Amino acid sequence: MARDRDYADDQAVRLPAVVGTAVARLRDAALALRRLAVTTATLLEPVAELNTTDTWSSPWQRRSTARVDAWQQALTAGADALALRSGWYSRVADVLDAATRAVTTGSTDGRVGGPGLVGDGNAAEGSTLVGAGPAVVVPALPRGWDSPDLALVRALGAGLSSDGADPADPPGGDVGGDGPVSFDAGRLGALAGRLRAAGTAAARLTGAVDATEDQALHAAVLALTELVASTGDGLGGAIGAVVAVGPPGSFRVAGLAAATDVLRLGAHVVAVGAPRLAASLDRRMAHFAAAEDAVRAGGLLIDQRAWFDDAPAPSLRQIRSVAAGLVALIGTEPKALSAGEVREVGRRLAALPPAAREAVISRLRGAPLAVFAAAVTRLKKRLAARTRAELTALTAVADLLLASAPTAMLDELVRLLPDLEPAAPGTGGHRGGAPGADGADADRTDAVVRDGIFSSDVGQGGVDDCYLAAALVGLARQRPALLADGIRENANGTFTVTLYRDGRAFPVTVTRDLPGLASGDGLGDAAGRPARTGMAAYDGTGRPELWAAVYEKAYARAHGGYDSINGGDPGVATSDLTGRPHRTLRPGEVSVGELAARLAAGDVVIVSTDGEAPRVGSGLVGRHAYTVLAVDVAGGRVQLRNPWEHPGRELTAWYRWDDLRPGLLAVTLTPLP
């Protein structure tokens, strides 16, 4: 008995001291976390002050700004989590304080602590530790403690590869785009410095949060253990207390060094990403300075868009050496140049960063380029009856020249290699000369993609390629990102479009000469013929937007000219645009429910009418392709989009499926990944 009284007296002395220390640490932690929340939320403010168009302007700048904005979203989420945790620590401190007073004053009835905040996996009343004394209610973990936005996590992880490279900005991967490339060297250098400072501060912030919480949680567990021992609940209750206090779980973000939760997510991505972005800025400025010096000292042509690139700085000595080697390899006699030597020219050019490649090509102007072009033309004719692979390899070298040559050389290049410019509509396959001969040259400020890719951007012009327009409409509706990723503007203003042959990527480069350029007024000429001959190069409101017309031109070039794409299969066109196989079904085999299921699964669904006159009242055009945009299963209806151009609105309408099927030729389905 005496020993029990001594233990009780010892507990009576120990409990207030242990719990009092824990309460003080918890309240200190709550105050520290509130301060850290402010630090977290404002961490990127110095960066935002300099990350403006006055500091720099380029396509990559816009992508980088979007990435910094995502970092800020993560930091804001972390600051909110810190505020929640601060409040939770304060509430736990109040509960522990009240429990200690109840135990030391001998009050053993009732519950100590109030209702807990509702948290994932926690009861609304919190976690109750029941012993011989009062029931101690530990507040439940609040929502937002560890509940990340998974879409944000994926976006952040995509920009942080484990090898330190930035997959969104490969060297030479984006030197084109709309708008000028410019920067203020002083301000951009200062921005790089602020990014590095932000990365350092973010790393320290994570450490400060960890240290603060470790101390607070350790003190809370000790206090709860003492309370459990005092109320007779023993070790089991202590374990329950530890489980209640610990964060629910963790997840891993690609490129981050350790498992993290929503609180630390923002700090981690800034600590990893900000120094990388700063290093890329430094490399770009060095590249710009070297390109500027090479142009000034070496009499080279390099479009200024290619100057600001995250690639090895161009060396004038290397440029002269590579160019001299190519001139010697090309020689002076087209008939002496073999297919292997043409491919070797392409291999040497492809191995160079964009600015250096452009500079080397500029030194081939005149006789070397004329000899090389004549050799390519001769070899393509000679190999026409041989394997497609050999022809594809030769075409790829010509495409590389078109995508990489200085803007001032494009006219000369297309004149020497007329196959680079598809024959214009209505020419019967006869190719014109330089860009601008058969259409209008798109302005460098015209948007390739303005406000996103939408089905309303597509309008078939005077070419009979409704099947291709319908495929573009379907992809714009179901997978716009695929179309956006498949088109790249090069530094010289040309476009490289990724098409597919037999499921394999097949890049095609075209100039800015687009026969679909017009004001969008929908008027024809005096004879009533269409005012434009290619696909619309503007959106539904009449503003310039080039992506659909560029895809059409690339498709025309891949097939030998615009007249060569008159008439076709919408399933084949969709496969050519995506690399995915398609299926063609008889309309009678497809129900409304199946159409709805395929649309919901992400398929592109296109219907084709037969050559007979359409059924009375259907309103469909014979020998035409329509994209299925929506399905009303209960009403047995489908919504079709006619891909014709109609300024100001889309040509969409609802039809009863059973009424349409007799006048349809086929239904094509193209599943997308």
Present the secondary structure layout.
Elements: H1 2-41, H2 45-50, E1 56-57, H3 59-104, E2 111-112, E3 127-129, E4 135-138, H4 150-158, E5 182-183, H5 185-231, H6 234-245, H7 262-298, H8 316-330, H9 339-350, H10 354-362, H11 367-382, H12 388-404, H13 410-416, E6 440-441, H14 466-478, H15 480-485, E7 487-489, E8 495-501, E9 504-510, E10 513-514, H16 547-559, H17 570-578, E11 583-585, H18 592-600, E12 604-609, E13 625-632, E14 637-642, E15 651-656, H19 657-660, E16 664-670
Parallel strand pairs: 2-4
Antiparallel strand pairs: 1-5, 3-4, 6-10, 7-8, 8-9, 11-16, 12-13, 12-16, 13-14, 14-15
Question: Overview of this structure, please?
Answer:
- Strand 13 and strand 14 (637-642) form a beta hairpin.
- Mean pLDDT is 75; it is low at 108-134, 161-178, 233-260, 432-438 and 519-532.
- The strands form 5 sheets. Strands 11-16-12-13-14-15 form a 6-stranded antiparallel sheet. A 3-stranded mixed sheet has the order 2-4-3.
- The protein has 19 helices and 16 strands.
- The radius of gyration is 34 Å and the shape is flat.
- The chain has helices at residues 2-41, 45-50, 59-104, 150-158, 185-231, 234-245, 262-298, 316-330, 339-350, 354-362, 367-382, 388-404, 410-416, 466-478, 480-485, 547-559, 570-578, 592-600, 657-660; strands at residues 56-57, 111-112, 127-129, 135-138, 182-183, 440-441, 487-489, 495-501, 504-510, 513-514, 583-585, 604-609, 625-632, 637-642, 651-656, 664-670.
- The chain folds into 3 domains: 2-281, no CATH class; 315-420, no CATH class; 437-673, Cathepsin B, Chain A (Alpha-Beta Complex), CATH 3.90.70.10.
- With 673 residues, it is an alpha+beta fold.
